[in-house]
Amino acid sequence: MAEHDGPVSDEPVSDEHGPGDELFGVGDETGLQVHDPKSAAAGVTGVRVAMQRAVGHMGAARATTTLLKLNQADGFDCMSCAWPDPDPEHRHTAEFCENGAKAVAEEGTTARATPEFFAAHSIADLDRHDEHWLGQAGRITHPMVKRPGGTHYEPIDWDDAFALVAQHLNGLASPDEATFYTSGRASNEAAFTYQLFVRAFGTNNLPDCSNMCHESTSVALGESIGIGKGSVSLRDIYDAEVIVIAGQNPGTNHPRMLSALETAKRRGAKIISINPLREAGLVNFRNPQKPRGVVGRGTDLTDLFLPIRINGDLALFQAIGSLLVEWDAIDHEFVATHTHGYEEWAAHVAAIDWATVETATGLTRAQITEAAEMIRGSSATIYCWAMGLTQHRNSVATIKEVTNLALVRGDIGKRGAGVCPVRGHSNVQGDRTMGIFEKPAPELLDALEQEFGFAPPREHGLDVVEAIRAMRDGTVRVFMGLGGNFLHAAPDTTVTAAALRRTDLTVQVSTKLNRSHLVTGDTALILPTLGRTEVDERATGEQVVTVEDSMSAVHASRGVNAPASPHLRGETAIVAGLAAATLRAPDGSDRHGIAWGQMAEDYDVVRGHISRVIPGCEDYSRRAGRPGGFVLPHPPRDSRTFATASGRGELAVSPIEVLHVPEGHLLLQTMRSHDQYNTTIYGFSDRYRGIEDGRRVVFVHRDDIAAFDLQDGQVVDLRSVWSDGDHRVAPAFRIVAYDTPRGTAAAYYPETNPLVPLDSTAIDSNTPTSKSVVVRLEPRPA
Predict the structure, then answer these.
(1) Per DSSP, what are the bridge partners of residue 666?
(2) Residue 628: which of 79, 234, 284 has the closest Cα?
(3) Using one digit for the tens of pLDDT, what is the confidence trace for 247-259?
(4) On the CB side of 486, how many CA atoms lie within 13 Å of its CA?
(5) What are 766-776's pLDDT values in tens digits?
(6) Same domain as 291, residue 307
(7) How far apart are the C-alpha atoms of 321 and 87, rounded to whole Å?
(8) Pair 507, 527: CB distance under 8 Å
(9) Tell me, what CATH number does 577's domain have?
(10) Distance between CA atoms of 688 and 694, rounded to whole angstroms?
(11) Omega of the bond prior to 84 within 30 degrees of 0, cis?
(12) Which segments of 393-434 does DSSP mark as H helices, in order?
């Protein structure tokens, strides 16, 4: 067993705050209130909050007509999480959750950030406001530019904006001096066009939000089962006998999952919840569409809750495996036919040290045995996880260990069983399918070359962490973001801000204002795009886009509202316009003969290319346009075949690591509030955890508060230390006594992202370790 001593120093460090404190526009939180946490999720309160937000932003009539098209077969896909939709015939009239309604309200708002708004507010003035205030300014209505030395954004027409980007890109010494980021909200058509543009330009610098969330999943599953995607369907959730939910809070991050879990429970499933915090959504679900959720007591979901110590999951799953081997609770036929490496794995887990397991997990052997007994008694188990497993140094090993359990129990390619990573962004999986990846498969590049007649670059590009380093070091001069809020999504906020400011040009394709528009290169562009809710009308008519959910289902999305401004363009048209301007040959043609203009005006042209380039997408337009769409192939699920080196499911052997935390420190996980989605702050209510009218709180066990001679309610600075004397500070957090494992803490991001060192990443996936940050709490001067 290896013991991992993280690069933490106890040497004295300066008391000065870092230069990134101003990057959050910290607002007045004197009204912050703390109440007891809730023991149930949704219910009438969820409906009331959803409708208040929707009506408040859009008005009653617009809110009603828009929400009734959300997640419907003839409507638009939710821009929030990637949880799949039921078959069209089984969808509710109101097929959305509270946070989906908030997302729609934010996009469908009637507020507008016009050129007059930008003229009235300098960039410095905007930067003084918090993230919520920036978002409430409303939809950006015109392309905007900040010129070198400028203090304000000013309007620019589309052709001039495209020409300005082309001038910068074509003036680089190498295409690799530009990097092209993608958020998970981009449609499949936009993502395909984007990666085609970037590779036709000559680089594979395609970092994306996967690098910061589920990259560990993609690496682990790719090596274990040959495909970096989950193996289950929504029907499997309903039919499972046991569902393991690890490092995930569905009640806030994927609320519609609760309906599926309720169905599974009503059919007899048992649920094991593994998480440092007891989250309300996994305690009890009050389904507002069922009488028992409105006037009854709802549905209790979790049968066994394991309050695991942060970073203890690898040890937990190996301990469960050890017990299964001891009991001979193994599907030997499946193992012999479909796996490789069983003997080595079985010997490894049989030799685990239980004292080490208990130290790493904070759990007793009896608790772990109870979980193993539930899995032993199940003939169909599903393993679900989210970022609580993916953002640690040993995340890839942990997810491989989860997959080991599924393999040795024969729970791959079986009804009601499988592995189920739950993606946090609505089309992040689709973006990767469409080729958004800095390490493209040779087969994709071959298909692009055959389809378009140019030789794509073969060298791997930059992921998010590498792109930040390259901007910091001056080797990347242009940054473009297709959606998202890169500054606040990335780790090490101060370093990331300095890196962006070193560039010559930053380009953001956005719907609303965020901090990444205020921390810019010498020149900065905001290219305003249509949202999912809006009709995208081009010369050939109304356009449709497609998306892929967490379970590999691809379906169409059609906007229903008039655009927020006549000056907006869809993401696909914007990318195609940039490509046409950048790749224009001296005679006015495209240097590779690619018909960007056709793709901009008719997204069906893009889908034709997808059909011929992306495996499993043959006859793409017709199949995606059917009600409910179609499901992409998944060999382990479909035929129990594995595209691994051995042609079988690979059982991995990984040493247990115990993350050492020096005395006087805590292990911090960053997380969302219930009133946010990723970096978008909807409001200041995290009612399930008992927090109202504020965000700068740190949840700490009461005994740890006393041991550090601190007080519940005291305001402290959070300081993380990485390597000798290298420190980061997030100031002014109120301590909240909370039922979290001893030695651990939790706080909201993006406020705590400055504490995550750029160089602290997961082995193999390079994902920032946002769920295991060593910190100490420092009282602020009176």
Answers:
(1) 775
(2) 234
(3) 999 999 999 999 9
(4) 35
(5) 999 999 999 99
(6) yes
(7) 35
(8) yes
(9) 3.40.50.740
(10) 14
(11) no
(12) 395-408, 428-433
Angle 215-225/395-408 helices, nearest 10 degrees? Answer: 40
- Residue 104 near residue 78, CB atoms below 8 Å: yes
pLDDT for 23 equals: 66
Output the pLDDT for position 1: 36
**Residue 12, domain extent:** 2-30+665-779
**Tokens describing residue 99:** 């946070």
In this structure, are strands 2-5 and 715-721 parallel, antiparallel, or unpaired?
unpaired
Domain co-membership, 412 together with 455: no
Burial group, residue 653, by CB count within 10 angstroms (0-12, 13-18, 19+): middle
Q: What is the pLDDT of residue 524?
A: 98
Nearest alpha-carbon partner for 217 in 447, 95, 89, 385 = 385
Report the C-alpha gap between 237 and 382 in whole angstroms: 7
Q: Which residues contact 650 (CB under 8 A, 6 or more apart)?
A: 223, 224, 225, 339, 340, 341, 642, 644
Residues 465 and 484 in one domain: yes
Write down the pLDDT at residue 11.
34
Whether residue 236 lies inside any domain: the answer is: yes
* 716 DSSP β-pair partners: 733, 779
> Alpha-carbon dihedral of residues 219, 220, 223, 225, nearest 10 degrees?
-120
Distance (Å, whole) CA 387 – CA 92: 29
Q: How far apart are CA 604 and CA 635, in angstroms?
A: 28
Please tell me the total count of domains within the chain. 4
Q: SS3 for 182?
A: strand
Task: Kindly report the CATH number assigned to the domain that includes residue 311.
Answer: 3.40.228.10
Residues of the chain with pLDDT below 50 are 1-21
DSSP for residue 584: B
Burial of 33 (0-12, 13-18, 19+ CB in 10 A): exposed
Q: Where are the beta strands (DSSP E) in 465-596?
A: 478-482, 505-510, 523-528, 536-538, 541-543, 545-548, 553-557
Find the helix or strand (DSSP H, E) in which 273 lies: strand 270-274
CA 614/CA 602 separation, integer angstroms:
19
Under a CB-based contact definition with an 8 Å cutoff, are residues 113 and 120 in contact? no
pLDDT number for residue 292: 78
Residues 345 and 230 in one domain: yes
Q: Residue holding tokens 């203090």? A: 151
pLDDT digits (tens, 9 = 90+) for 276-303: 999 999 999 999 888 777 778 899 999 9
Q: How far apart, in Å, are the Cα atoms of 263 and each of 85, 139, 191, 239, 247? A: 14, 38, 34, 9, 21
The pLDDT, as a whole number, for residue 25 is 58
Clarify whether residues 238 and 164 are in a common domain: no
What residues pair up with 543 in beta bridges, in sequence order? 536
What's the rounded Cα separation, in Å, for the pair 301 and 268? 11
3-state secondary structure of 698: strand
